[in-house]
Amino acid sequence: MMCSLFHYGLRARDADTTLNFYTRVLGMRVDETRPNVRVTGYWLRAALPGSPPAIHVFTGEYARAHPSDAEVPGGSGAVHHMSLYCTEFRAMRQKLAEHGLPWEGGVAPGGRQWIIFVYDPNGVMLELTFDGTVEEGPPPEIAPENAHVPGQPFHAFDAARYAAFAS
């Protein structure tokens, strides 16, 4: 079940300009709790003590939409993904299987967050984020064909898989 917006991922054309805008204009802070992942970038959070990271900024090669792209997309194309805080990880995984929707996922470093990546019918990548400390059971086993590898491209969007949702 989806509970709230968790964060969104932003592709930065210029890391310093993006950082300076969000920190100088909006007063955001770099979140130092970002785990050591292979994806270049940084997390930004509100200046309020204890606020969670709200924007995950991707820089360098990972900011491009596809490895073959020469440029980082602008406008709405700069949004890499939307992360939604959810509950009931295993039930969500079952629903995706029942609808034949491909997904990738894993357990974030430290094991506290369990993650599923799936497209919406518009081709927007969603990161469904679950708090592993409140989910039932041990961390999930992820089959190799469903394992998300940070820094690697997500599978291609296939609009035909969503035809059943039209009625």
Characterise this structure.
The chain is 13% helix and 29% strand. It is of the alpha+beta class and 167 residues long. It has a single domain, classed as 2,3-Dihydroxybiphenyl 1,2-Dioxygenase, domain 1. β3 and β4 form a beta hairpin.
Quick synopsis:
This protein is of the alpha+beta class and 167 residues long.
User: What's the N-to-C terminus distance?
Assistant: 22 Å
Poorly predicted runs of 5 or more residues? none
CATH architecture descriptor name: Roll
CATH class: Alpha Beta
- The fourth-level CATH homologous superfamily is 2,3-Dihydroxybiphenyl 1,2-Dioxygenase, domain 1
How many helices? The count is: 2
Name the beta content range. Answer: 25-35%
Q: What's the count of strands?
A: 8
SSE pattern: EHEEEEHEEE
Quickly list its features.
2,3-Dihydroxybiphenyl 1,2-Dioxygenase, domain 1; 13% helix; 167 residues; 8-stranded mixed β-sheet; 2 helices; 29% strand
List the helices and strands and how they pair.
Blueprint: E1 2-11, H1 15-25, E2 29-30, E3 41-45, E4 53-58, E5 79-86, H2 89-98, E6 104-107, E7 113-119, E8 125-131
